[in-house]
Amino acid sequence: MFFKKKKDNSDIDMNNLPQHIGVIMDGNGRWAKKRGLPRSAGHKAGAESLKKIVTEANNMGVKYITVYAFSTENWKRPKSEVDYLMNLLMDYLINAEKTLAGENVRIRAIGSRKELSEEMQEQIKKTEKLTSDRTGIVMNIALNYGGREELINAAKQLCKRAAAGELDPDELREKDIDDNLYTAGQPEVDLLIRTSGEQRLSNFMLWQVSYAEMVFVNKLWPDFKPADLHECIRIYQGRGRRFGGI
Ligand code: FPP
Q1: Quick one: pLDDT at residue 3?
Q2: What are the average pLDDT values for consecutive 10-residue runs of the chain, which has 246 residues?
Q3: For a pocket test of ligand 1, which of 23, 24, 25 has the largest count of ligand atoms closer than 8 A to its C-beta?
Q4: How far apart are CA 53 and CA 57, in angstroms?
Q5: Strands across the sheet with 64-71, in order?
Q6: Is there a catalytic annotation at residue 170?
Q7: Other CB atoms within 10 A of residue 170 CB
Q8: Exactly one of 9, 59, 74, 176 is catalytic; which is it?
């Protein structure tokens, strides 16, 4: 999707915003390569982009944003890149107070924590606690996250309850799955944005995007600006959502 430039967002219907936006922030590496820079520079620029987008989404009144920061498959990258990303994430969490100061953003991490360093696990707890009483946008950082793993975990919990006689398998409902996901209690994703021209889900929120409108943007993530977020929301608002109806 190539966007035309629009100056303001007065045409956006603020009463019909996506409640939950999912973002696959793709293209950091290519952004760096185009500039003859190391991949780490792309991730650093990507983190800056992220701050601006979360701030803008919060200012607009979006309630939830989930960003794909590190997948369960990303461990396959060179150790130096994994280390860089982990340090960047750590800094982001430590500085959450400062970087999102006054933004009223509530930060949560979703994904499997046990493979993360103890330091990171502690910092996640700290940042979550520090921002837990904030009333603005909820930002889920998908960190060591995999959609299939999330569903397997939900299945395990439900099987245990069935084995304990607390749940009749014939009575299983969608809500039982919802309640056992990392995003329990949150609305499903309404708008999914992926940058860099790739058109895949890459194991991101497989259950939660069931009825999401998907917008694939050609820009690389570090080039994605608040005006591009506005354009994605315009596209979302231009689509007729039917949820299987007519
Ligand atoms: C995909 O680009 C991006 C990632 C795997 C990491 C996303 C991380 C950030 C945007 C910055 C850190 C995040 C936080 C929350 C501080 P890629 O590396 O696959 O790019 P390529 O496909 O062009 O190689």
Answers
A1: 61
A2: 66 96 98 98 97 95 98 96 97 81 85 97 95 94 98 98 96 97 98 98 98 98 98 94 75
A3: 25
A4: 6
A5: 106-110, 138-145, 64-71, 20-24, 191-194, 213-216
A6: no
A7: 6
A8: 74
pLDDT score of 2: 60
Tell me which residue of 75, 109, 98, 88 sits closest to 43, measured CA to CA: 88
| Any atom of ligand 1 within 6 Å of the Cβ of 25 | yes
Res 96: pLDDT: 80
- Closest to 234 (Cα-Cα) out of 12, 6, 7, 2: 12
Instruction: Give φ, ψ of 142 to 5 degrees.
Output: -80, 110
CA distances to 22, 130, 138, 169, 179 from 58, in Å: 14, 18, 9, 40, 25
Residue 4, pLDDT score? 58
* Residue carrying the six token digits 């009223």: 104
Are 103 and 54 a contacting pair, CB within 8 Å?
yes
DSSP code string of 35-79: TT--HHHHHHHHHHHHHHHHHHHHHHT--EEEEEEEETTGGGS-H
